[in-house]
Amino acid sequence: MSLLVLYNPVCGHSQGHAIFQHIVLPRLAQHGHTPAAVVATTHPGHAGEVVLQHLAAADGPLTVVLGSGDGTLHEILAALHSGAPTGTRTAARLLSFVLVPCGTANALYHSLFPPSPDSSQELRDSQTRSLDAYLTDGPRARPLTLAQTVLLDGAQQPTGASIAAVVASTALHASILHDSEALRPTHPGVERFKLAAQQNLTRWYHARARLAVAHTPVPNAGIAPVVEIFSPAARGFVPYTGPGAAPDGTAVTLDGPFVYFLSTVNADRLEANFRIAPCQSTFPPLPESSPPTIDVVVIRPLRDPALLEESEHARQAFAEKSMAILTAAYRDGAHIHARYGGAGEVVEGGTGDVVVEYFRCNSWEWIPDPSDQYAHLVCVDGEILQVEPGGKAVNTALHRADGYTISVYS
Ligand SMILES: Nc1ncnc2c1ncn2[C@@H]1O[C@H](COP(=O)(O)OP(=O)(O)OP(=O)(O)O)[C@@H](O)[C@H]1O
């Protein structure tokens, strides 16, 4: 097994170099691991180039000790996605990551090692838990689900593609990631996401979404292949039978406008405490033998019984509710229990309609209204893509992509 050490020295609070020199490299040496190379990235895109070079230099599995945030991991996956052809290889090649969180949000690391209220502060702050897992003989690397996004134009021709290990989104989250990049120099921490959220909270996004499951029933999977929704009353997923559901349950059409449309694979949180997709850990997706799934978190303002139609007043009124709902995600994912009271007030409990629609499916499509420029933004692990007017984005969960199985030590 070949070992590469790679870190981004400028992400997050620019601590990568110190962490690797003082902690990671000494620990690897202590355990007798000699990397083929130790590389600090020098420019955007560099991480992907380095991993492609190492994969080309030797066949067989490769382990990368990666000091970065989610964006650098994404760059590597994107490089594989657009990289060299995988030739005649029939078995997927193994690429495993040991994650050392040096970035801003570190969503995947914090999802793998969530801060538990019972754990010590030292454990909560630890940046070496994936490294510890790698250096001990016990746990093996766990395979990641990947989410491929393809952009199609109005003639159904591909105009772009990317791949996520954490998040693919449109609407508010895509706008936040789009705008927060400009705030990076002044706000290197997660507060830049909150600032960008405030800038975008009153916007509604005009689009139609379609969620779907793979049609083929899975032998012995024990579940019917239908789009599911989280039910606070059932305290679990149930088949979605609401407006827009296809008669056989395999697809759901959601009409806008939307405030929020975000999907995750592997991750139940986007920051240490922002647990936006809690079912990823509370009800983990079925193992690798089943079709890979995506969790989709949706907020559609016109489901609010207090709002009859879109207006400036309605957008302002709903912005306060959006803020309250998203803030509840910091309370261990409590937002998925929020419901509407009779006058449209947001309550936890009761029997009203859920405020957040939380779906589980295998793929989604996002078809923006051509007149809404902001609805054309798509975020894939922080990379911002743009749907062409008249086009759409299609996101599909995969167990492996481009001839690689991607794993992380946890
Ligand atoms: N030497 C470098 N100089 C400037 N930018 C770099 C360099 N090396 C890598 N980068 C860029 O840094 C960006 C930020 O890295 P990354 O996304 O991993 O961290 P982050 O944004 O701080 O954390 P997170 O994605 O977890 O919020 C990447 O998009 C990458 O292209």
Automatic annotation (TrEMBL):
Pfam families: DAGK_cat. InterPro entries: ATP-NAD_kinase_N (IPR017438), Diacylglycerol_kinase_cat_dom (IPR001206), Lipid_Phosphate_FormReg (IPR050187), NAD/diacylglycerol_kinase_sf (IPR016064). One of its GO terms (biological process) is sphingosine biosynthetic process. Residues 1-140 form the DAGKc domain. GO terms for cellular component: cytoplasm; membrane. One of its GO terms (molecular function) is lipid kinase activity. This is DAGKc domain-containing protein. It comes from Phlebiopsis gigantea (strain 11061_1 CR5-6).
